[in-house]
Amino acid sequence: MEVSLCKADLNDAVNIHNIKVKSFKPLLETYQDFETSPGNETIERVITQINQSFTDYFIIYHYEVAVGGIRVVKKDDQIYSVSPIFILPEHQGKGIAQKVFTIVEKKYDDAKSWRLGTILQEKGNCYLYEKIGYKKTGVTKVINDKMTMVFYEKHL
Q: Which residues contact 48 (CB under 8 A, 6 or more apart)?
């Protein structure tokens, strides 16, 4: 499987925003989470994130087609966070995200641990993260009556 990452810069902001909105649209419609959903973020927010010194944004390519993105946030003491990862709906279920995590973990080989959050009700997402070694932290956050965030950590 041909999966690669390309570090994004400001010239990629519109493309990242468009892919992110399209990728998160089904979840936004299902859970009606207009406050925190990446699918409801503005282009300005993406630009701000790209400009953050502690953030690396990558466009995910599958056979040279842009199919998603991942934002890696550097925390303290070699702790990194994925916030968010997204794949266009028509490219989901192909193992792309799993490959992206392998690439990212190799790229940030100084990491002692990784953190991420996902929607508890999205069993496929939870299954993926658990399959690649993430463990639930026990922390959850109720967003609304349809959706709860669950947080994961992976120690290396």
A: none
Q: Is the pTM of this model over 0.70?
A: yes
Domain 3-155: CATH class, spelled out = alpha beta
- Sketch the domain layout of the chain as residue ranges: 3-155
Measured distance CA(36)–CA(41) in Å, rounded: 8
* pLDDT, tens digit, 9 for 90 and up, residues 70-127: 999 999 899 999 999 999 999 999 999 999 999 999 999 999 999 999 999 999 999 9
Q: How is 108-130 classified by DSSP, letter by letter?
A: TTT-SEEEEEEETT-HHHHHHHH
User: Can you tell me the distance from the alpha carbon of 111 to that of 88, in angstroms, rounded to the nearest whole number?
Assistant: 27
Count of helix runs (H) and strand runs (E) in the chain: 4, 7
